[in-house]
Amino acid sequence: MIKSAIKVITVTVFFMALIAAPPVVPVFAAGGGGGGGGDPPASDTSTTTKSSPAPRSAHKAKKPKQSFLSDPAFIAGYRAAYATIYDRNDYRAAIEELKALGHDDYANVANLIGYSYRKLGDYKLSQVWYERALKSDPNHVLTWQYYGLWQIEQGNREQAQYHLSRIAAICGTDCEHYRSLAAALEQPPGTGLIY
Question: Which CATH number fits the domain that encloses residue 137?
Answer without folding.
Answer: 1.25.40.10
